[in-house]
Design brief:
Elements lengths: L19 H16 L6 H8 L3 H7 L3 H11 L2 H11 L5 H17 L20 H22 L8 H7 L22 H12 L9 H13 L1
Helix pairs in contact: 1-2, 1-4, 5-6, 5-7, 6-7, 6-8, 6-9, 6-10, 8-9
């Protein structure tokens, strides 16, 4: 009888995900956010998924690549939305409100608080230069939008980005996504932070800000 193709799972699937790659990311998210990068091994990640360590390397060449993938997942969707917002005809306050709400919602949509990964010392290594470049790009977009409201010389332009990121300190890390799907309704926390971002700039709140943001998110997804 012919042998099995590839390396089988050691156990039945035990992580959430549509495929092995997503299961690996889920396991790594838990381990990295609860015990750190240095003390997490690829063997531990593979064991948490229920696959052999060699099988993990089929999907990711290294632990560093897994970590980078998770870091980028906290930024890339918002960078894409920011580009779409730049092509829209909505006002600067609406664009900024939508971006703060979307980034906050994104950080609330994951099972594990992956936004915490940026706080780990290893995240500032040159190995993750690609992520740093994307993060700096996104922060710059936040500042540009704020500058459209209060002027480039106003130091408050730095605040909206950090207000959006403050959601990391406001959510738990217990394996339950506070708001897994924000395609049809924005989390209350995200709406509150987006309101706060405009409040510090003394900018008026757009009346249809929630509905417009949901529309923009749907357009971006198509």
């Amino acid at each position: 009888m012919a042998g099995a193709v590839g390396r089988p799972r050691k156990n039945s699937p035990r992580r959430r995900g549509r495929n092995a790659r997503e299961e690996i990311l889920d396991a790594a998210s838990e381990l990295f956010t609860t015990q750190g990068f240095a003390t997490t091994s690829t063997h531990q990640i593979a064991d948490a998924v229920g696959i052999r360590q060699a099988s993990l390397y089929y999907h990711f060449p290294s632990k560093t690549e897994i970590f980078l993938t998770l870091l980028k997942s906290t930024i890339e969707p918002s960078v894409k939305l920011a580009e779409a917002l730049g092509e829209s005809e909505v006002t600067a306050p609406q664009r900024l409100w939508s971006l703060v709400a979307a980034e906050s919602s994104l950080l609330l949509a994951s099972r594990w608080n992956v936004g915490r990964l940026y706080q780990l010392p290893v995240a500032h290594s040159t190995e993750f230069a690609e992520y740093h470049q994307q993060r700096a790009e996104l922060e710059g977009i936040f500042q540009e939008l704020a500058a459209d409201i209060v002027g480039a010389e106003d130091p408050r332009t730095q605040l909206p980005f950090h207000i959006a990121m403050s959601v990391i300190e406001m959510r738990k890390n217990d394996g339950t996504a506070p708001w897994p799907d924000f395609s049809t309704e924005l989390p209350e926390t995200a709406r509150m932070l987006a309101d706060a971002a405009l409040a510090v700039l003394h900018a008026p709140l757009p009346e249809d800000r929630v509905e417009r943001t949901l529309q923009l998110l749907q357009e971006d997804a198509n």
